[in-house]
Amino acid sequence: MTDMIVSELGQAWNEFAHGFAHLLPRLLEMLIIALVGWVIAYLLKVMLRSLLRLVKFDHLSERAGATQLLSTAALPSPSGLLVQLVFWITWVGILLAGISFLDIGGLQKHIGVFFLYLPRFFVALFVIFLGMLASGFFARAALLGAVNSDLPSPHLLSQAVRVLIIALTISMAFEELGLAQRTIIIAFAIVFGALMLGMAIAFGLGGQDLAREFLERRLSAQRRERKHEGDLSPL
Amino acid sequence: MAEDNILSDDLLRQLISVGEVDILVGLHTHNHAKTIGHMVQVIREGLLKYFPRERVAVLNADGGSVDGTPELVRAASITDLRRENSFYTLRTLHCISSQYGTNVSNGTAMHIIVAAADLLRARACAMIAPESSEIRPDWMDQLLGPVYRDNADFVAPVYRRQRFEGILVTNLLYPMTRALYGKSIREPRPGEFAFSDRLASRLVGHPMWSQDAGRLGPEVCLTLEALAEGHRIVQAFLGPKGQAERPAPDLVAALRQTVGPLFWSMENANGAWSSPAEAPTLLTIGPAFDVGTDGTANIDLARLHHLFCSGTKDLESVLKSIVSADTLSQLQYAASLDQAHFHLSDELWAKAVYEFASAYRRSVISRDHIIQALAPLYRGRAHTFVTENLNAAPDALGERIEALCVTFERFKPYLLELWSAPERGS
Fold it and tell me: Are residues B10 and B43 part of one domain?
């Protein structure tokens, strides 16, 4: 009995030792890959940081309003965020490539999926960045237009434009990522449609008199404005 | 060559059939049928009277008129003129009209006229605004004479204006241009002006034509180019500035046509204005400043005050990225004052304008947005200017504008400092 136990233990130990001896070089390879990956990711980070500084990416983001948006969410600067993102994605990517060396069943498939997902992730990020640029630009344009035309609630108008563009951007990004695709699109369509319909009904039916009055006031105000600017001809 | 691109085949054919000329008069039109016939006759009368021996052509660059403007230009008969005024010319007086497209653009029209002047080797070319209701035959002599006879390169007009007419010109364009280049060009955005063949050959391939500045405000760009290059400039008094039949452009459009090109030209001049080269003294034919006593009626000062206050408040986030914290707090303080005590000082105005110019150069936000953000400040300034000069005599008004010019000049080192400051993020 004791011999059997010892023999089984010995066999288990041998199998473990054999397995470990088989795994050890791969583990070492993976560690080396992880280390090299970290160095590559770090170098990439440094290079990208210099490139972003060269193209004045933060300046561009500040103009677009992305910096303010990120700082509101207590996030680092856009260039810092992008650099960190690239660093981690590179390192994790290389690390996963290293893990695939371990030859653990089933893991390789997931790693493959991860790599296939990366381009979509970057496209989604790009869409969000462009959306932020567009929302900042058009929100400011709406604000300036409303202020210079003396429209009521210029900030409300500007924020509405911003929210609408950001919502559109997020729905596009989620669609690209394939996350809750239908839900997001349907939610966006419902909200947008409801908003427009609500405004149309409120303005056209609910407030018929108000709408008429408002339009009359606006048009006569425009005429008055033109007259005033004309009387005080800037040129 | 640049003119090959801008001149259509049809126009080139017409120009080739005209051949070289001594004088070219350019008219840029768009649906000006009501006034253009009379204008062409007055121009012809002036040309026959003052330049009877010269080879002369009138070129109309039309932006797709649908009211028959080009036909009226072409049909203007010289025989009517001879019959009425007993003028005789020794040469043919050509009238050419060409449509450059359906999108109206003063910049394109002027580029065509400059390119045609260069191609025809015109020694002098005058540009006449189609709205000039006050045009007289002697304008031809006033504008073209200094270039054709006295070797000037650019003739800018001086108009007799009403007291509060052209506040953007008197409170921004004129003082700032003067501070930049040290020359008292009263009308940096001239409706009518003339230039020499030397200047035309420099202008024809200028980068301004492909920029918004050149498309929207070619007059300002041309004037500032003449100043920046140290050309010989003459001012000629033309009398009252004609009142346009059409409504004047709204404030934002006016800012785009004037302040945008001014800021762009500062950048394009590569600092030529920081220490302007010695240029010939500015000669002015006739009075350098003439102002009427009308122009106080119907100015809604309360509205100007309201638009300044609400604009400063609502655009705080935009202004924060354009002007310094100190300037912004001063503007906010001014906005907190009631109308009776409201005052936007010369110093604050000059400083703010310079900060806008610097922000435009650094493109802190979209350049068009920077120009639009100036509108509330201009309204505040207009309020102060009107309030201060409601009962001022013409001489006192002149002194007041002179004081503003001095303030702009005094603050020029501040502009230079802003201009040479490293960009944020670099």
Answer: yes
